[in-house]
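Hi V.,

You were right to ask for the full record rather than a summary. Here it is.
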Amino acid sequence: MDHLVSPSLLSADFGNLAKDVEIINNSLADWIHCDIMDGIFVPNISIGFPVVAAVKRTAKKPLDVHLMIMDPDRYLARWKETGADILTVQYEACTHLNRTVSEIRRLGMKAGVAVNPHTPVALLKNILPYIDMVLIMTVNPGFGGQSFIMESYSKIAELKKMIDSGGYKVMIEVDGGVDTENAGKLVETGVDVLVAGNTVFNSKDPVATIKKLKQAE
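Predicted structure:
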């Protein structure tokens, strides 16, 4: 149970969001995952500063915020103020990635970099010394409930080898199609943080489902 679980609020009941945050608070989950979409980088719009600020007021776990937006540099300080503890930006959306992640760390947050399914992890080699986490998208970002892309396993293994060979303290997070069936293999392949949305909030007992994800091996 060394890996972490970060339930995604994208699949929560937004009419009763505080209730679903309390479910996470009272579970074995480690973080709360917040997906931020702008309708430009991905073909969907999700939540923004007011909703995340409201989540922060209820949350007893760190907020794991993933920015699926263009030009994230405009809002780094705002996300810190709103309550992000971990802030992840998309590799494909950052022209000056080193500057972006350095600013995230300077603001006092952990810095993550996410890569889309088509983006090779080899491109991250030179940024690994400057970040805390890599988020591998195991579906095409934008919508919950998609099927896991099987080629992601080899991508995770390649990234794990890069991290270990360089001696970097970088966590590997995965998001997309994660469930109780593939969680064990993902952890075995090298994943440190499992993000799950539909699997948690569409289950009859979200707390028990989170426990299963947490105990996956």
